[in-house]
Amino acid sequence: MALKIYNTLTRKKEEFIPLHKGEVGIYVCGPTVYSGTHLGHAKSYISFDVVVRYLRWLDYKVKYVQNITDAGHLLDSGEDRILKGAKREKLDPIELTEKYTRTYFEDMDALGILRPDISPRATGHIPEQIKLIEILIEKGYAYETNGTVYFDITKFPEYGKLSHRKVEEQVAGVRVEVRTEKKHPADFALWILAPKEHIMKWDSPWGVGYPGWHLECSAMSMKYLGETLDIHGGGIDNIFPHHECEIAQSKAATGKQFVRYWMHNNMVLVDGVKMSKSLGNFITIKEILKKYSPEQVRFFILTTHYRSPIDFSDKAIQGAGEGMRKIHNTFERINETLKQVQGDNKGTQNDKRRVQGNNEGVEDNPASEIDKIIEVHKKKFVEAMNDDFNTPLAIGALFDFSRELNKYLDNDVVGARHSMSLQSTLNIYEEFGGKILGILPFSKKAEIEGTQFIELLIEVRERLRADKQWKLADEIRSKLQDLGIYIEDKSGKTTWRRN
Ligand SMILES: [Zn+2]
Predict the structure, then answer these.
(1) Counting beta carbons within 10 angstroms of the beta carbon of residue 14, is it exposed (0 to 12), middle (13 to 18) or buried (19 or more)?
(2) What separation in Å is there between the alpha carbon of 152 and the centre of ligand 1?
(3) 130: in domain
(4) Nearest 10 degrees: CA dihedral of 236, 239, 243, 247?
């Protein structure tokens, strides 16, 4: 089954065919850097991170562009977000945008989100934006009034096609005071005349001003990805007016299709209510990462499809954590088993079973059974991801995979000749759980270092026990338990697991 993507424009799942064979250009609307990041950013950028990781896993050469909005993004009240933030924090606008650009990347890095290939800033692309406006004026799609330039939506009949809105509906919400200078109330600003006190402003053929927010995405996406993008993503709240305006600007200027596949992710609710600053139910990424690991946050978000809203509560994310640990435990168990059987192999060079079952003489072949489990679940995982990046189903496939493998390990008939198969199961975890979903901390240096220390402590504890220093040995055990590390002594062997 080929990859299918739900296209907001057609409201259908369509087979994904990029413009250039083997290559994908993807643009995702980035943050407006005037305040800190929150769970909404986590959902959006984790979702697109997995899209990009999966496309790369499918061997596409992906160019991922995500902008940084550091100018021109106004609130519904008409107030400039950046200037509002700068006043609030008593900083220069550029200090503010620099501060929140840095914290944005810090938080995204902490969540294991791979950085975009290009992160263009709006303020770094003023000439490109002015050029685009000039083209639009020249082609008759835009007009200037008192130093402000508007896009004339009556000249672009497709306006409203993405959001499936009629022009009358678009007028709702447009500020009354700026309607007078527009030809049509739904016309939107490409360039805005800057009042004297406005700090972030640039010279232009229409006077000193600053670009409208929608314009930067058209100018920068086409600069780095060409006039037609394979995928354009964003939150559902971007569909209208932002993406509708991007289509109008871009297609009017080039005469070409702007985007082949429009993808939109849904929002985060907190205990069933939309997350918002005014309701005080706003959760920042820094806060969430104090309580939960990045993998747990990713796991929680990916257990819901990107097009569905996700309802956050401590109970829900804790439940996700339990699910994640089940998969992780199986992975660790296989690692352990592999180490053991490889050890056995070294000792005897034979296929020695650790426990003799009652099936001596019966030629069972768990190696090929394990291979079968791998094949079945690999297919399930890929089919789920090919179905519009259905991560909940893909995670379900990893659950089933782990359950089936546990059955084999419980039967304890695994020996050295299964090393290859066991190694293949580990590869599945690393590829799917690690590389694609980023929910298993296999490659995390800190985790590996932590593991070495835990094993060292366990070794010390074993020596203490051999020396009959029970009190100290128990103390190590209980202190580790406080840190979520559980030790089990069984038939002369000590094993451990993370809670
Ligand atoms: Zn955008």
Answers:
(1) middle
(2) 20
(3) yes
(4) 130
What is the Å distance from ligand 1's center to 216 Cα? 7
Q: Report yes or no on 57 lying in a domain.
A: yes
pTM above 0.90? no
Q: How far is the CA of 29 from the centre of ligand 1 (A)?
A: 4
Distance between Cα 343 and ligand 1 center (Å): 55
Cβ atoms of 27 and 221 within 8 Å: the answer is yes
Residues within 5 A (CB) of ion ligand 1? 29, 217
Which of 234, 265, 296 corresponds to the end of one domain?
Answer: 265
Domain-located, residue 478: yes
Neighbours of 263 (CB within 10 A): 22
Centre of ligand 1 to C-alpha 30, Å, is 7
Report the C-alpha gap between 239 and 262 in whole angstroms.
9
**CATH number where 249 lies:** 3.40.50.620
- 336: which 2 tokens? 């352990």
Ordered per-residue pLDDT tens for the chain, 499 residues:
799 999 999 999 999 999 999 999 999 999 999 999 999 999 999 999 999 999 999 999 999 999 999 987 788 777 888 888 999 999 999 999 999 999 999 999 999 999 999 999 999 999 999 999 999 999 999 999 999 999 999 999 999 999 988 776 656 555 555 557 899 989 999 999 998 888 889 999 999 999 999 999 999 999 999 999 999 999 999 999 999 999 999 999 999 999 999 999 999 999 888 887 778 788 999 999 988 899 999 999 999 999 999 999 989 999 999 999 899 999 999 998 998 888 766 654 444 444 333 344 334 566 788 999 999 999 999 999 999 999 999 999 999 999 999 998 888 677 788 888 999 999 999 999 999 999 986 444 445 456 678 888 888 998 999 999 999 999 999 888 888 788 888 877 787 877 6
Question: How many angstroms does the Cα of residue 208 sit away from the middle of ligand 1?
Answer: 23
> Residue 28 Cα, ligand 1 centroid: separation in angstroms?
7
| CA 484/CA 450 separation, integer angstroms | 12
Task: For residue 478, give its domain range.
Answer: 444-499
| 186 and 174 Cβ atoms separated by less than 8 Å | yes
What spacing in Å lies between the alpha carbon of 239 and ligand 1's midpoint?
A: 10
Which of 265, 294, 317 finishes a domain? 265
In a domain, 132, yes or no: yes
Ligand 1 centre to CA of 369 (Å) is 49
CA pair distance 448, 291, nearest whole angstrom? 21
C-alpha of residue 242 to centroid of ligand 1, in Å: 6
Task: For residue 265, report the distance from its CA to the centre of ligand 1, in Å.
Answer: 14
What is the bridge-based pairing of β-strands 259-265 and 229-235?
A: parallel
Tally of structural domains, the chain: 2
